Batch of 2 targets.
Target 1
Amino acid sequence: MDHQDRLGVKRLLVTGGAGFLGRRVVAEFEAAGWTDIFVPEIDDYDLRTEDGIRRALDDGKPEGLIHLAAVVGGIGANRTHPGRFFYENAIMGIQLMELARVAGVDKYVQVGTVCAYPNFAPTPFREDDFWSGYPEETNAPYGLAKKMLLVQAQAYRREYGFNAIYLVPVNLYGPADNFDLETSHVIPALIRKFLEATEAGAPTVECWGTGSPTREFLYVDDAARALRLAAERYDKPDPVNVGSGQEISIRDLCEKIAGIIGYKGELVWDPTMPNGQPRRCVDTSKAEAEFGFRAEVPLDEGLRRTVKWYVQHQDASRLRGSPVE
């Protein structure tokens, strides 16, 4: 039985397929033998509009759909654009799932976000605790917009028999990430800060918060493999965490990145800036049990690869600024 028989579809549509994760997902499926993959790029198909979604579905004629497109950013962008991040992610996901159902899509993969977990959920986060409280305030509008898509997926499965699954990845990183300081996540932002400080001979680098919060990071190629495995092997309504199983404090992360880059100055912490969620790491046992996923790239190796890529491409990367993927 080949991969297409297991998934039950032949034609895939990958929203956000030209973005950071999306490019890896498309490459992962292609490497596994998929040849009919349609990527609706934002310049041609604005998936925040019903017209853009309808045209993408008409042109792609998908039997399977992987929804990666999102309006995203780090803690600063979430603070600045809570209304935009809620509305655009919610309206895009809700309309896309409904129109995909109407169009007869056989398998739908919805990607959520780890920041949808309650602010003080027991760690490591288990899928059973997904609804045990309210998300951390800074990321709540984005997290709740994505969380509603789990409600929709489960409701559609019950009423219509729609085969939608829901994955909850931790923070992703890797080569070709978004390094714009206004919209990037923590790892690319730190890499750029430390590299620029090293080049300028700056004696200090300012870091947000106290450095005490912890996070879990997953290398982007591992995430792409997890998505393919889940698309092929998982057909249940319950959400599934996708992570590395490695928790690290922001302070230790900063020191690790500074060491890789060779920055010799001082790290200065600004406690007036938000820390975000106190701890964030997930229980990854369900992903391994249900579809055989286990992360392969250790954080140190992934960081070295990411730093090396940015050093080689930094001029082009600094021009990137759109939070839409």
Target 2
Amino acid sequence: MSEPVSPALSKRVSLLHAVGIVDEDKLLKCTHCGFCLPTCPTYRELGLEMDSPRGRLYLMRSVLSGRSRLDDDFKTYIYRCLDCRACESACPSGVPYGVLVEQARAMFEQSYTRSTGQRALIAGVFGGLLPHQGRIRALFGALRFYQRSGLQRLVRGSGVLKLLGRMGEMESFLPPIPSASFRKRLTRVTPAEGERRYRIGFISGCIMEPMFADINLATVRVLARNGCEVVTPREQGCCGALHLHNGVRDRAKELAKTNIEVFLGGDLDAIVINSAGCGAALKEYGELFEHDPEWAERAAAFSAKMRDVHEWLVEIGTVPPTHSVRKRVTYDDACHLIHGQKVSLQPRALLKSVPGIEWVELRESDWCCGSAGIYNITQPDMSEQILSRKMKFVEDTQADILLTGNPGCLLQLRKGVRQADLRMHVMHPIELLDWAYTGVEPDSIRRGF
């Protein structure tokens, strides 16, 4: 791994730096102090320097200087990172590690020749599926038919899922997919209840909309209850977060341009989202276009308007909920909310405002659950190790309800709860707040999640 790269590859890496894919100035902020090491899940599990943030930053610099290759070792260490960004919270030098690891993956994808099968998979997921809302809805429509037609019971009874290994295991944790008619309840404009205080845009999300339509509806109800007219443009698209996490940077930029144009033309006080990972990416559109003179100003303006829903509600002040929820409640910080967006106190403040709850703090709530986008698919063994540690502390809370603010985390923690055979519901915090406003039990409780 220490052999010098070829002149051609060195030239290629220099070109990547020049066009803004790699920002060496950000790399140089690292002083190698090591404060990041105790916060890194992969370093804690493996104990290897190259599986720590400091080690990965050193590897990036080695490639840029020509001392190391963009090879399989580089791929192993860079992609074994969860990109949970806990190291950013610990770093005294302000190293933007999340941006750097995304740039490193983009550098790798631009310069490394993957197998034909890998290229086809990447093109299919990040080019053929995620950018296209219609195709995503069609996929989830097929999944709903699979669940509702009796085919799911037949497949599960046949034992074929065991032959599929990890993918078969993941099928068992797929939540019930809502009908298209249920999703359509989210209208283009939802008026504020009472006096309109704000006009905001709502990002419904390419996964949240078809899989968690109930959470989106609860979010809009809570926002409307607190004086917000909510605009949900149909023209919005995928935020590009998964593309960025996996090095598909050019496609992420195209998706970002669509959202910037759609939402900046709407005369909005804020743009609000309920998905932590997507929110972190949207808040960093300014960074994504910082070297693009045509888009830099608009991208920065867009990011300045972005708010996580918990952050926004605390910022504007909420109407006190009146319905009592007599449940023991705990909260797990989604990584891209606490570390990426620095939002941690706000969800707790909102949850503690709910009458009747018994609050219990979760030990290591700021540690990753192992979901990390598609990490639990691409790195299943490491993901399982990290989840196993998390679930020990979840079980200790003896909570009735476990809350978290990200779709991937919801699925991962529901899986952990089932594996541990815990009598516990896993919900989005906004569902509990909506419950306290309306007095109506959330769908996730009624469905047994």
